Amino acid sequence: MKCVILAAGEGKRMHPLTYTRPKVMLPIANKPILEWNLLKAIDAGIEDFIFVVGYKSEMVRNYFGNGEKWRIKIQYINQGDAQGTAHAIGMVEKFVDDFIVFCGDTIFGKNDIKNIIVKKNSIGLFKVDNPDSYGIVEINNKKVVKIYEKMQDPFTDVINAGIYHFNKKIFEYIKKTGKSPRGEYEITDSINMMIKTKQMNAVFLKEWMDVVYPWDLLDANEDILGKINKKIEGNVEKNTTINKKVIIGKNTIVMAGSYIEGPVIIGDNCRIGPNCFIRPYTSIGNRCHVGNACEVKNTIIMNNSGAPHQNYIGDSIIGENCNFGAGSKVANLRFDKKPISVVLNGNKLDSKRKKLGVIIGDNVQVGINSTINVGTIIGDKCFIGPGAVVKGEIKSNSRIM
Fold it and tell me: Is residue 165 annotated as a catalytic residue, yes or no?
């Protein structure tokens, strides 16, 4: 049994975080999304993988290599220009017979992957509260009748979860598949052709998480951190409180007066404290600095970034190589407590979150005593000057004074 993982997309709805990395390499609890899915598939018993890559594929290849680290085999196929899921799956025809395939940027459960493996010619389904955002699936007696594209008034809450078990028959229908209205070759169109002559089994999933927008990473991070076990490998000084489940990496120092309330994960070679407060559901990458009188909660801080002096960061995502000047703070709650709207790629979106701070790309410098308003998006390579008040969407390479 081979497992094909689709990992070629950029993830434009994840800007600015995907300007510098493919979506599947975005970190959750200090591991890329793709690695969490890989680990689930390995636990489900799979040892042979094909990654279909494209956008910034070298990052995926450099991180995962040939799979030796996990004692598995990984092959790579470069899709080139992203032309849809049917096109991506069609590229593996020469390398597979009986296989499962899933999207690398959606998080699945180990047992659900096992169930897909067992059930030949099957598709994973999931019930959601917002089916109008997804392709919905009509079923009858546990068989798929038809897959529909997004509908304004869907007649069911059952959606296509993006995981399949195929054999070589699927490639006959992929070759007959034309472009969809959005200009891509869709595997759902191939499946709709196939089920006219061949039954496809419906498998309902128990675990499934779609990570579409940057703030969705916070939900996924919370879910994964909720399942961690305590592990202290760094140096924790006296007069420090480590409460509940906390992971502290190698060569990390936690200085006196610091209070860490789990679940929290802190990577290797970090400097924490003195006298800082790290609250639940925070992930801090490698070589980071959270310093004196700082408070961080429910936040993802990527590698080589720092909040060294008197900073508050809540419900936020901070890219790599970023730094907060002394006294700079992030607002994460509206005065009226209403859900926070965000401008992303020029479009106004409802995050559906009552608490949301800032999404910051890589290589951003924030000057002292700056204030960042709720739901702010800051592109990569930006400079936020001392005392600036920042809100809305800030394009990459901007200077805000």
Answer: no
